[in-house]
Amino acid sequence: MTPSTQDGWRVGVLFSRSGTTGVTETEHYNGTILAIDEINAAGGIHGRPIIPVCRDPKSDNDAYRKLARQMLSEDELDVIFGCSMSASRKTVLPVVERQNGLLFYPSMYEGFEYCENLIYTGATPNQLCLPLADYLLQTYGSRIAFVGSDYIYPRESNRIMRDLIEARGGETVAEHYLPLGVSATEEMALIREIEQIRPDAVFSTLVGTSAQAFYTLYDAAGIDRSVCPIASLTMAEGEIARIGPEKCSGHILAASYFQTLNTAVNRAFVAAYKARFGGAAVTSVWSEPAYNQVHLFARALERVGTMDTHRIGQEVLGLDFEAPGGRIHIDPETRHTWLTPRIGVARPDGLFDVVWESGAPVRPDPYLATTRFEEPSLREWA
């Protein structure tokens, strides 16, 4: 018998709990561990527990590659829940393919990818960028400034958002990219430019500590957030708590999940998360997709009965799950997830008021093959 069937179902958990993206990836980690705890408390899969083998790559891409190889080869694992930034996913992907592993990836990302060895449970650009572009133009104005970290996700996401803004009659008034971990001096230069050009909104794809510093400096500069907010796809409840909620109220997030969703499933999720990680802990679009994908994996494993990555990967396709953010569905054609897009505005307490949501889950379109940039996406207000 293999170690998986003797002792339990051993899986890899590969998220950074330190470094540039330590805050958000710790939330990925927490969502993963909470789901594993729940499944094991309910009796595991075929009477055996899921056993997480956890590694911390510390936000270093070389470490992601090394640890993924170790997990799949030396630790003899078949399934990994892991990666957050697109750079880390791109680094790990060849290793997973070579070892015929299965990677569950929980982050929103720039799209334009398909892999038989991946299941994508985060949002694609059509699910977030389209409604956000409409919301900014309708609510704040047509002059948008773009800032981002200098790697593939921000550049591709900004390209898509820029095309959307301009197709809808808007204007790009600035576009800048900064290295991860950039100094405050360089970020202050961006703040000064924003003060001078006075855009109607700033679309930010800065990530990690760079984003946290930018929001802090934005507040210190006294820029009126009711007139010129920062909009993003990533600045959620956990990082806002780290920055200070009073510094972030009025800023905008497009996401498939917010802690404030008032459903029985979400209330139970939030309560369980706080019971496990402390009363001050907040759920977010980082923890929720990570939680969801473990439950999807467990359902597939229950049906397959063996740690066969191809069969598990096939069994996940088409699965539905009543997630904290609403019903989700793994699209068999794209291996991505049907999700409910939403737009939230940050409150003084660090949570979000949902100001718009789609009436139903939206099909993922990672290659933007069927998306029409000229058509508005906002159909009704929440």
UniProtKB/TrEMBL annotation:
<dbReference type="InterPro" id="IPR039570">
    <property type="entry name" value="AmiC_PBP1"/>
</dbReference>
<protein>
    <submittedName>
        <fullName>Amino acid ABC transporter substrate-binding protein</fullName>
    </submittedName>
</protein>
<dbReference type="InterPro" id="IPR028082">
    <property type="entry name" value="Peripla_BP_I"/>
</dbReference>
<dbReference type="GO" id="GO:0033218">
    <property type="term" value="F:amide binding"/>
</dbReference>
<dbReference type="Pfam" id="PF13433">
    <property type="entry name" value="Peripla_BP_5"/>
</dbReference>
